[in-house]
Structures are given as structure tokens and as C-alpha cells.
Amino acid sequence: MKIIVPIRPRSFVEYYSLVEKINNRAHFIEVWLDQLEHESFFDTMDQILPPSCKLIGCCKMDNEGGEFGGSEKDRVKILRDFLDAGGNFVDLNITTNSAENIRKIPSKNLILSFHDFYKVPENLSEIFEYMKIFSPSVYKFSVTTNNEDSLEKFLTFVKNFSSDEKIIFSTMGNLGTTGRAKIQEMQKSWAEFVAVDSLHQTAPGQRTLDSFPF
After folding, report:
1. pLDDT in the model for residue 85
2. Fewer Cβ atoms within 10 Å of its own Cβ: the N or the C terminal residue of the chain?
């Protein structure tokens, strides 16, 4: 299983500090770009990375937990500039991006995600079939499990996939921590989001790098 460490730096200095803390303990670093001055960051972002680590870029709006206030077009431009500057992948949410803009990201660089911040929808299989149209490199499903029934519904969906498929599964909500633990036991998720430390968690109960043996 791959380890993805999400970070939300507001400056290159903070980015540098977080990358130093991560060191060589992650396969990927996911950089939230919605708070950064992009041009100066893009010039130097890959110069301090450990050789084995790759960069994922995302640019989240407030309804996704981020702070980006621009248009969808502006957001896709930032992500394309991130790739041009040496980034490896970008993460786009299929519920907040049009098909036209999703297609502006090369499939080989695309992590296509589905987020539901309120529930586990009934039509996950249909959503997955629609996502296939874009042939992303990686799929991601993150849903909100507020009770045992919703958690069981999502775990039943997860069971349909083999462990070698490039799909990330995660849960939020009242049973988010329980759901992530069960997914880990199932060994179905291609990657896990792991925080630098307890001060930089992007989800309640998210495991930290210190909890992994390196």
C-alpha cells in the first residue's frame, strides 16, 4: 500500500519544513495549492523532494474543505501549471469539475475522485462506471459513514474490487475512523492518506507517519 501525505502549506518556507519532516517516509506528497503563491512555488517545488517521492497537486474550494475562491477554469489552469512544473499527478473531484475540464488533465496524471460529505450514496457502482470514461490513472472514493448501515454499504462496495486495482477508499463522518481501519484490514485500498503529525491531520483520526515502522 502506498502512503500519501497531504500538506496545506501557505508559503514555500512552510512547504520546505513539512517536506523535511516527511523525509523519505512517503511515496507521495499531496500539496493543497489553494493557499499558495503558485508562480514562486512552481519554480522550486520539486528541488527538495526525496528521489523516491512524487507530487500530487489539488486545489480545493471551500465546499471541499479548501480555500480556493477562483473559477473552475482558473483551478484547472493552476493544476496544469503544476504538472508543467514537474508535478506527477493532480486530484480532481468528479462532483465539482465538469467533464470538459477533467479532460484537460492527461489521463496518466489524473487521480479522479468522488467525495460525498454527507452520506454513502446508493449509486456508487454507476458513479464508478461514469468515472471510467476518463480513464484516470487512479480512482478515489471518499464517503461519509454516519451509522453502521452506511458503513456496511460502503464496505460491500469495496469488496467488489481486487487488491491490485489502483483505487483509494476512505471514509469520513461519525464512523470515519472505524471505516478506514476496516478498509486497512481488507487490504483493498491502493493508498492511505497519512498525516505528517497530529497537528496536520486532514481528517479526524487520521494516522500519522510516526505510527508507521520505517
Report:
1. 92
2. C
